[in-house]
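Protein modeling request. Please complete all fields; requests missing the sequence field cannot be processed.
Requester role: graduate student
Desired output: 3D structure, token encoding
Chains: 1
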Amino acid sequence: MSPEGDPTPPSEPEPGPDAPLSEPEPASSAPRAEPEELAEPETPGEPEEPAEPETLSEPEKPTEPETPGEPEEPAEAEAPPVPAGAAAEPPAVQQRPQAPAVAEELPEIPRQRPEIPGADLIPDIMPPEQEEFLDAEARAAAEAEAEARAAREREEEEELAAEPIADAAIDLAAGARYSATGKRKSAVARVILKPGSGGYAINGKQLEHYFPRETLQRLIRQPLETVGYDSRMDVVARMHGGGTSAQAGALRHGISRALIVADPHLRGELKRRGFLTRDPRVKERKKAGLKKARKRPQFSKR
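Delivered output (302 residues):
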């Protein structure tokens, strides 16, 4: 077997010295053909060794589908990695239903939120909204009714104010004097009530001369007319400060407070009618940067 293993070196020296051996060359050619056939497996054997790593590289491909879970096309193209891909798919399929399950649970959270406070309350129906749907005639009639009702209420109040207080019991002795102080804005009135015929002496002047306006005269006479002693008592007052309107308000306030001194039981009626309440309205002070308390200078854009 050793000469067959190395056919080329021993075959050349043997036919050299022996001439008769040269004749059976055809027979030697036949064995030469045989080693050629043996050489054929040798040649495929040599490439088969590098081919084996190629086959080994093919099983390495399943490692690729492990990393890319994105495309499934390479797994379908190759037959051997199909089982490996199928084995890896079940966990992915199990995870896919889990994702929607979590998505379904998320919207359930807002459903459990508490309801809006006051959502179950019934909204109030405002009457002005109903008036919007009325016709022009119906609206005019409603406005006329409201005005008439307000006028009736004012008349009733005036009648009540005009009615004298029947429970008044003031001592009208000869030396009776009832004094009090009234204020309005910056005006101050010191008033003295005494029995008389219903005269007024304000800083030494009569009422008609000191307060020419009838509205102010009517305002000053209201307290005594309400009590019913307008013709049985005289009023003596000293006044300073303020203007004409402020002094008239201060005088009315002083007369009302003097009547309480004369009869404390008149306090409820006088207070209900507003005679004992000092008018707190005063001129508002001027502000810096303004012309008056509220008046602003004309705006200039440029």
